[in-house]
Each structure stands twice: as structure tokens, then as C-alpha cells.
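stage 2 :: seqdesign
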């Protein structure tokens, strides 16, 4: 993006967060998240509807267009009526993948009537008089209309504005503020604008909600790293713990970037992926569905929000790419799970930790040549508690593990637990992958990457990756997999950063997969000072510090004694 486009989006972010602030004092973050995002969605679909309406009107008055209405065939009043009637033909909108909106679901209707509804009002809706009791009721009615006339959105929108315990005048103010948000820009696609806005808002709400917010949001840079490494270019993409759908969004962005590099049509290429997801939390499931809808992505999130442990929504799925950030170290996950569940082929995961339940669930649904990646707490790489070590050993001995990446701390809004990424595949043999790369035979090898020193502090408490960090790790991984140079990067072991280890090496380390054990320490530059001389200097310095410590200790004891205290 150029500076002008970046400034446009920055101003938009500021305006939107100000909109959220209008509700912050009245509602907790989990509630105002849905209140603000729901209204932004209505504004976006209304803007898209209005743009299409203007296009149709231009076509109807263009003598060169097939829809042209010749003024000679009508009186002036008849022509106006005919144009008005044509603008209400649903097919004109759906043929361009624009959501059809009934009158009461359009933004202008909301904005015009919200002030009247602060204390309740009788409105004419769909040709009939209807009592609207509040601004929240007016919004719910608009959302119901959108869902009713667009089956794909059924159950997706959060119709709970009437139940919000909030000053209705403040809700009216919020509508007026969101009305000023433009989803139109000369150089930016409206879906791209809304997609950017949606992602920004999800991140901000995750920060506002703290620990709870992290359940629906994985930082975009971590998602990008996984997507760049796993390369979901075409095929079935699955996330069994999808939250708000971040992996699917980044997959779309990955396809757009790489389609451009390969002179392929991005729209055609995006049609080559099928999106499957599952989410237990109903409101988060709605967020993910809305996230897909605004990007025009087809998706299958199952019949309903449901637990991946006990109510699998895609039982027969064998996915080409599986990516997930499941809850870390989840306890008591196995209530209602059969002890003979066929998913747990490599060992029964302990009731006190779901890490290896998630991993094996994903493996069960992975296609023979598929690839999977999941974020887990660092303990998963070394724990031997309650069968975890046995399961990990079985995964290693069956040559399912392809790469382990250790991440830096402070990447997540919701936890300070150090994390890692596991990459697994059922086929390490030589083959051509879905992205068109010729892979070499990697049987019996595992790549270890220690990325703990990458990234930068984006603020006082949060670390992030930049594009160069992501590219460095992804290129290294692909160079190792192919044995070829990738973007100028060839693979070779680098002390302190990466190491390709054999399975027998891992067995010698008791099947522990912590990258630090394999990559070793980075080599330090030789400063020309002999080791013996360095050691003498360090020993003398330590001796001086011990002496200083003893002196200070004696001084403290003396002062305490003067105050009548003894140590």
C-alpha cells in the first residue's frame, strides 16, 4: 500500500475505535465487540447494496446498455416508477454476489428512524405498521431481515441489541458515527477495507477482553507465519478450533499474493480451496461466519457450533491443510469421549491436558499427502506426564513430525505461556506438493528452528513478527523441504537457529523436541583474547564482587544492630 492508502486505513481504525468507546462505559468488551461489529457489518452490506443500486440505475439510463429504459416509451412519472421498480429486483444484486437487503435492513432506514425509536415508535415495515420498542429493536429487526432474505447468513448475525442494557440515545449516536465510515476508496476494494477493519477490531477487542479475548483471536503475524510455511494454495483447509477464522483469512491473503507472483487469477485460485471449520462457542462461531461472508468466501462450519471432542461436524473430512491454535493445556476435555475413540491411534491423551488430543484429532482428519500445523504450549515438546511422552515417542517413531518451531515469549494477548508450532505430515517422501514445489525425500529427518530471538516489541507488553521475520523462517523451511534455493535462501544448519536432526538423534535426547537441544548456541565472534586470560579476568571480577557483597552485608548488619535488631 502507498502512504495515502495506509493513512486512510489508519484514520478509519481511529474512527472505529472511537465508535467502540461510545459503548465501553456501558458494556463489557465481549458485548460491545458484537454490538459494534454487527453494526459495521450492516453498514458495509448497505454500502455494497447502494453501490450496486447506483450501477443498475446507470445501466437503466445508458442507451448502450441492454437494461436501458427508453424515455420515449414512458411518461416522466412512469419512467421514475419503472426505474424504482427495477432497482428492487433481487436478481440484479445476487448475480453480482451482493447481499439483497429489504428496505428496513438498509442503513439509511436505520439512521432515519433510530431517533424516533429511542422511546418506541410505530413504523411502516414491509407495507405494514409495526411497533418498534427501541433503537436496539430496530437494529434486531434489520438483522432479521438480512438473515431472512440471505439464507447463507442464517444464524450468523447476533440479533441481541434489544437486550443490551444501554442508553438508547447512545446507540443512536453510535449509528450516526458509523454512518460516517466510508467503505469506498479510489484504490482500495471495499471488501479489503472491511477485511482490514474487521481484523483490526478483533485484535483490539482481544486486547480489551484480555485472557478471554485470546480464545477467539490468534495474532495475525503468528497465523501468517504458519500459513506461509504450510502454503494452503489449493485443496481442503480445516481448522477444528477456528475462533474467528483467522487462518482462513490469511489463507485467502496468501493465495492473492502468490497468485500474483505466478501470474494466476486470484479469484479462480481462491475457488480451488474449500474451507471447513468448527467452533464450540456460539458467538465466536457467528464472528467467524461473518468474517467469511464479508470476504465472499464459501465455507462449511458444520450444522451448528459444537465441541470438537464430542460432536465432530466433519466426520468424513480428510483435509489437505489443517491449521489450529487450540486452547493450551485444556483440562477435563474428555467428558463424553469414548475411551476407544479411533482418533487416538498413538495413545490415549491424559484427562488433565488436551494437547495431544487436538494433535491426534487433526492427524485423523489429515489427507495422506496433507500437512498440519498447530500452536501448543512448550510443555508439549518435553512433558512425560500421564502418557504424553509415550504419545510423542510414537509420533516421532512413525515419522509424522516434520518441523518444530520455538516461538519468542509475549506474543499472545491472553497468556504468557511460551509456545511452539508443530508441523506434521503423513508423507515425507519425494513428491510435488499443492503449491507446485518439488519436495525431496525427508524421511527420518526433523527440522528444528529456534525463533525465540526473532520479532520486535510492538508495545510495552506485546511482541510481534514483521514480514522479514516470517519470510526468513518460511524460506528456510521450504529450502530444507526442497533441497533447492528459495528466494535466495539455501538450507544449511546454523548454530543457535536451525538444525536438521535424524530420528536416532532425537531418540538419544529421550524424544524431547525442544529446538534448543538440537540447534545449540550461536557461535560468538572471536575477540582475540585467549580463553585462559578471559577466565582470569572474570574470576578476579567475581572475587571483587563477592568482597563488595560481604562489605555491604556487614554494613547492613551494623545498621540493624543500631536499631535494636539482630540478623
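stage 2 :: out
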Amino acid at each position: 500500500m502507498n502512504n495515502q492508502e495506509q493513512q486512510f486505513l489508519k484514520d478509519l481504525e481511529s474512527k472505529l475505535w472511537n465508535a467502540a468507546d461510545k459503548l465501553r462505559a456501558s458494556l463489557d468488551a465481549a458485548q460491545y465487540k458484537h454490538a459494534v461489529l454487527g453494526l459495521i457489518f450492516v453498514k458495509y452490506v448497505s454500502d455494497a447494496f447502494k453501490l450496486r443500486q447506483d450501477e443498475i440505475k446507470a445501466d437503466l439510463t445508458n442507451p448502450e446498455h441492454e437494461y436501458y429504459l427508453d424515455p420515449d416509451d414512458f411518461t416522466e412519472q412512469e419512467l421514475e416508477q419503472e426505474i424504482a421498480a427495477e432497482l428492487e429486483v433481487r436478481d440484479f444484486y445476487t448475480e453480482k454476489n451482493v447481499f439483497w437487503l429489504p428496505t428496513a435492513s438498509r442503513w439509511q432506514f436505520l439512521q432515519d428512524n433510530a431517533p424516533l425509536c429511542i422511546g418506541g415508535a410505530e413504523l411502516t415495515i414491509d407495507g405494514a405498521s409495526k411497533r418498534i420498542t427501541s433503537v436496539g429493536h430496530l437494529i434486531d429487526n434489520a438483522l432479521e431481515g438480512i438473515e431472512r432474505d440471505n439464507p447463507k447468513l442464517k444464524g450468523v448475525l447476533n440479533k441481541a441489541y434489544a437486550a443490551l442494557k444501554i442508553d438508547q440515545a447512545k446507540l443512536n449516536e453510535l449509528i450516526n458515527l458509523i454512518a460516517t465510515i466510508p467503505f469506498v476508496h479510489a484504490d482500495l476494494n471495499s471488501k479489503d477495507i472491511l477485511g482490514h477493519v474487521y481484523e483490526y477490531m478483533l485484535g483490539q477487542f482481544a486486547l480489551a477482553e484480555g485472557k478471554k479475548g485470546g480464545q477467539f483471536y490468534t495474532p495475525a503475524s503468528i497465523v501468517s507465519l504458519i500459513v506461509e510455511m504450510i502454503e494452503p494454495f489449493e485443496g481442503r483447509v480445516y481448522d477444528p478450533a477456528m475462533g474467528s477464522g483467522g487462518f482462513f483469512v490469511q489463507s485467502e491473503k496468501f493465495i492473492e499474493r502468490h497468485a500474483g507472483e505466478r501470474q494466476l487469477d486470484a479469484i479462480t485460485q481462491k475457488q480451488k480451496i474449500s474451507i471447513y471449520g468448527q467452533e464450540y462457542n456460539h458467538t465466536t462461531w457467528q464472528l467467524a461466519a461473518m468474517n467469511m461472508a464479508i470476504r465472499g468466501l464459501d465455507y462449511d462450519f458444520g450444522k451448528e457450533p459444537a465441541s470438537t471432542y464430542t460432536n465432530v461436524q466433519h466426520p468424513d473430512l480428510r483435509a489437505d491443510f489443517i491449521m489450529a491454535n487450540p486452547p493450551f493445556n485444556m483440562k477435563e476435555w474428555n467428558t463424553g469421549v469414548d475411551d476407544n475413540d479411533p482418533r487416538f491411534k498413538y495413545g490415549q491423551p491424559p484427562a488433565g491436558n488436551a494437547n495431544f488430543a487436538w494433535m491426534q484429532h487433526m492427524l485423523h482428519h489429515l489427507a495422506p499427502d496433507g500437512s498440519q500445523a498447530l500452536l501448543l504450549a512448550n510443555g508439549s515438546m518435553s512433558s512425560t506426564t500421564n502418557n504424553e511422552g509415550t504419545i510423542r515417542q510414537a509420533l516421532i517413531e512413525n515419522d509424522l513430525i516434520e518441523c518444530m518451531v520455538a516461538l519468542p515469549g509475549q506474543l499472545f494477548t491472553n497468556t504468557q505461556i511460551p509456545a511452539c508450532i508443530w508441523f506434521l505430515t503423513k508423507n515425507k517422501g519425494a513428491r510435488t506438493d499443492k503449491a507446485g514445489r518439488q519436495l525431496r525425500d525427508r524421511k527420518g529427518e526433523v527440522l528444528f528452528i529456534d525463533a525465540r530471538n526473532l520479532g520486535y516489541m510492538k508495545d510495552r507488553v506485546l511482541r510481534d513478527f514483521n514480514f522479514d521475520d516470517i519470510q526468513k523462517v518460511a524460506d528456510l523451511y521450504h529450502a530444507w523441504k526442497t533441497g533447492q534455493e528459495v528466494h535466495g535462501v539455501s538450507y544449511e544448519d546454523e548454530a543457535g537457529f536451525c538444525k536438521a536432526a535424524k530420528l536416532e538423534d532425537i531418540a538419544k535426547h529421550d524424544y524431547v523436541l525442544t529446538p534448543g537441544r538440537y540447534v545449540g548456541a550461536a557461535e560468538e565472534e572471536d575477540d582475540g583474547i585467549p580463553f585462559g586470560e578471559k577466565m582470569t579476568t572474570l574470576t578476579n571480577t567475581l572475587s571483587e564482587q563477592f568482597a563488595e557483597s560481604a562489605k555491604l552485608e556487614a554494613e547492613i548488619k551494623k545498621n540493624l544492630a543500631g536499631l535494636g535488631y539482630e540478623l
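stage 3 :: structure notes
- The chain has a mean pLDDT of 87.
- The longest helix spans residues 29-60.
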